[in-house]
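Students often ask what a 'structure token' actually looks like in practice. Rather than answer in the abstract, let us consider NADPH-dependent diflavin oxidoreductase 1, a protein of 206 residues. Its sequence is given first.
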Amino acid sequence: ALPNRIEILLAVVQYKTRLSKPRRGLCSSWLASLDPQNGAVRVPLWVKKGGMKFPADPDSPAIMIGPGTGVAPFRAAIQERVAQGKKGNFLFFGCRQRSKDFYCQAEWEELMRKGLLTLFTAFSRDQEDKVYVQHRIRENKKLVWDLVSQGNTYIYLAGNAKQMPEAVADALKFVFQSEGGLSASEAEEYFAALDRTHHFQAETWS
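Now compare that with the structural description of the same chain:
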């Protein structure tokens, strides 16, 4: 979609420790301080090949789960899939607040309006009970199972490596049990088989 352009999604690291000492991310703060309007800016970088491989078959649906900045690789994948005429794009996106960190909102809404994307959102702090992407997966268990049970669907996960990947895996196994009628051990094996055959792929970082 954008062959001569590199775009990044950057969250500036800025917080206070328990002892109220300010902490700032070295690279993210530096990038945020750059202003190309004050003259040319040079950012030294290298491009590393991504670990996730998307299906070549245009009929293969892709379920993408990307909370926070984890949505960045899926923005690239969705742009490419749409440019190639591939439908079956399903995105689960989560962040704290719709008004503050709903990354790429206008882009997603335009693709939804055109029928090229199905989007599920979880804004964890916009209500009293926290809602995360794993809750949306459970809520949409019939759709998720209908897609996965076709056999040609791929599931992708990207984001923070803390608790999120395990919670998402548990939500998927719940879907396999509640909609697919599998036992707990069968759901574990089913998930392991998806992983083995690269029908489930994850890229997480801490």
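One point worth highlighting: Residues 164-178 form the longest helix (15 residues). Ask yourself how you might have guessed this from the sequence alone, and why that guess would often be unreliable.
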